[in-house]
Amino acid sequence: MIKTTITVKQGQLALLKKKDEYIKVLTAGEHKFIDLKRQLSAEVFALNGGALESEKAEFLRQYYPQWVEEYGFDIVLSDEQIGLLYENGILKEILAPGTRRLYWRYAERSLEILSATALEVPATLLKKLQQPKLRNQVIKGSDGVLNVDVPAWHAGIIRIDGETQTLLAPGLKGYWRYQHKVEVEVVDMRLQTLDVSGQEILTKDKVTLRINLSANWRYSDVLLAYQQLSSPIEFLYKELQFALREAVGTRTLDELLENKSLIDSLVSEKVDQVTAGYGIEVASLGVKDIVLPGEMKTILAQVVEAEKSAQANVIRRREETSATRSLLNTAKVMENNPVALRLKELETVERIAERIDRISVYGGLDQVLNGLVQIKGAQE
User: Fold this and answer.
1) Contact 116, 81 (CB under 8 A)
2) Packing angle between helix 294-335 and helix 338-353, nearest 10 degrees?
């Protein structure tokens, strides 16, 4: 007699085959069979191994349903179900709706079924998904969950199938990606700065200026802004550009240089009108730099130099006229007042004495003063 012995170890399961057909399930132990024509063989599986090939699994479900029920761990999810596969109490995989898997029954393997109709992921599951990330591990199938972490002073804009839905408060949230296309954009609710730099604009009198503008802005109504605008920041940037070009292009260089705050007020007024009703608020804006072409700088420098020179000449003439008028008044006073004349003479002597080391006086002070007067008359 020809015998065949098949040994199945602990933690294994075998399918006994005769020719190419399964005839029996073999559990752990030693199994002996009479095999006259040597037609018996066994296909051995580890109970804690992976899922069976899909074709083999469907074959067993169709032709050996009693084996699947008794020895298998069969997962058949509908389009409205999500599966959480655990091993030894640890989440190993998130199964998408419509998943079909067949494992051999293993005591430490379990399945939790969730509804796919709910959009938001349960908070308990989010915590489980965060733990492997701390160990640089990834749970298989976790890409089916959109994790959103909204920092403080921010808000989350959630879009479902392209439609803006609601505003998310700061915190950690998760959404299923299976039934819908879910997108979340995190926006800063604080005051922000937007720079419009390097704008080359032609003035009314054909002078090219390079202008840098800076604006401080915030969202006044985030949902309103994102319901009406695909990109609020790009919209604001373009409107600042248009308003700046309109303010500069319709005025001459002299007008702009005479009133530097003119551009700020014109742009601010225009932007406030355009952004009204879009949930955007411009708190303040201003022109940082106005850069002139090289040759225009030279011309303006010459103009300023000529203006300042003319102003200096006017001031000089005014001072000379004032000095002459003062001398004339002094002369009139001394003409009618001998005492004032004598004081002026003493003042002159004092000035001379400051430059002379020693003075010898003969004949009294009157003689000296008379001599000075005669010297002065001779010089004139």
Assistant:
1) yes
2) 120
d(CA 180, CA 353): 106
pTM score above 0.70: no
| Tokens describing residue 330 | 């002094």
| 204-248 tens-digit pLDDT | 888 888 899 999 999 999 999 988 888 999 999 999 999 999 999
Tokens 């303006």 label which residue? 300
260 DSSP 8-state letter: T
Q: Are 225 and 155 in contact (CB under 8 A)?
A: no
Cβ-count burial 202-229 (b if 16+ within 10 Å, e if not):
ebeeebebebbbbbebebeebebbbeeb
What gap in Å lies between CA 255 and CA 249, rounded to an integer?
A: 11
Contact 68, 60 (CB under 8 A): yes
CB 126 within 8 A of CB 174: yes
The edge-to-edge listing of strands for the beta sheet with 192-202 is 192-202, 208-219, 280-291
